[in-house]
């Protein structure tokens, strides 16, 4: 599969992939082709394939790989889908790179969360969840002043929640409908007061997106 053919395939894939998608092709331990979409990973022909990347995982599995990459070297998350291909008689990988909130990247939205309370499991409608917290290597969600543990990680939940859930900190996701008020603490950082009385910090990394989302 020569470069010209790669470009043709890229154009064909562009007919069904979103405009935001980027496409990368790797052979062995290096990339041979990259077409940037909305997210430019700044990949160039000859660049090495990083350990743990979607491309490397696809090579190892020799099958399709889908992965949400939260900690990319460029500082933004992306969703990668890797496919094994053949390039110039060698085993290669084609990777489709999407923004994490793209419809193709998102899993079906959750309608409820099942949590453990003491020795029992309870399904809780998602709209009744006030906020979700990651603490001491566990994930907790809160509803009607009860705290439930769940098997899901915060990272897994982030892109499966309805759009009225908002990340405010690496350890917290909140339901906007349960925010009572937003204030500043003595360090001028935002603090959320929830309707159940909980006080949740807003990290500097999320302050801008929260102001934009909530319009203040």
TrEMBL record:
Name of the protein: LytTR family transcriptional regulator
HTH LytTR-type domain location: 113-216
Superkingdom: Bacteria
GO MF, one example: phosphorelay response regulator activity
Pfam families registered for this protein in UniProt: LytTR
Origin organism lineage: Bacteria, Bacillati, Bacillota, Bacilli, Bacillales
Ranges that cross the membrane: none
InterPro entries according to UniProt: LytR-like, LytTR_DNA-bd_dom
